Fold:
Amino acid sequence: MDTKAFKRSLQQSNNYHRRGFGHEAEVEGMLKTEYQSSLIGEIRAHQNTLTRGDVTVRLAEAFGFCWGVERAVAIAYETRSHFPTERIWITNEIIHNPGVNQRLREMNVGFIEVVNGEKDFSGVREGEVVILPAFGATVQEMQLLNDRGCTIVDTTCPWVSKVWNSVEKHKKRDYTSIVHGKYKHEETLATTSFAGKYLVVLNLDEAQYVADYILHGGDREEFFEKFRNAHSEGFDPDRDLDCIGIANQTTMLKSETEQIGKLFERTMLQKYGPTELNQHFMAFNTICDATQERQDAMLELVEEDLDLIVVIGGFNSSNTTHLQEIAIERGIPSYHIDSADRIGPGNRIEHKPLERDLEVTENWLPEGKLVVGVTSGASTPDKSVEETIDKIFKLKTPALV
Structure:
């Protein structure tokens, strides 16, 4: 399938929409009421620090809703306003935030169900409205909806589209796209649907394994077992790693993406030499600015004298998880929650440790003076951060709240 030609044709269709519908003023007021926070504004005005009683909260310099997320949510709200009576669907969570997705359900937006690991589009009828989320959708999903005559509202983040353009360039030159990401993640599924040959590597360890295979060969069966479901159909590591291009899931850890890119550049340089490098290796900067800013801000925050850190964001949010990783690397106690509802009753918190199931920790806020670092993922509204901070203050200094 010529995915580039299909996408161009789709974007020229009268049934395809990538911008709002002229309801900006109405939607802006709704978003401000539902997601913005006066308390966060107050903390920002005081160098991102607020003390009440024994508790000092220090906010990261950059956190919460990024431009791409704000845009996606705003377009989804505009879609509901523009089609007040039509049945509206969304192919996935609009963003990885339970509160925002629940609000869309309350606005009578239907979410495509996953049955036996596959999305079930059988309930979407011809001509109905379907929103593509900020992570994007696969080419196959777009084609199905287009063939069904649906009105498609595309909120895909432009940074994600930039990655798609990169893998299209790899495909044009018959290069294999090596994608730093999680092969089951919605964004990576969408990205690989635009690729030709591809291989998804989760981390630097997996990338090193591939680099060693490029230089020295290896056990094919072991390779396929290690990367089961993480490569294109018909992929052959002995044939398809001669020419490679680097891409990434935009929410991965920036430093690791950069390390992986440099690793493969060195690998191809070692194998083919400097004069042949450009015939075997391609790389483009596809690291999302917002992801980078939030990670950089977290790196600055962990340099502060903190007793613990609270990271707020969806449990399936990749960029939020990577913020938690930074706290863990610095040895600072961290608690990843998806909303303030995880705090209480009493001095307890239900949280998700890295790569483990939910746990409950009692007496998580120690006695005495306390400095708490707070950050949130790019899909977390300020209102959710405010609610979390408010609960912390109430637990420690109830008389002052």
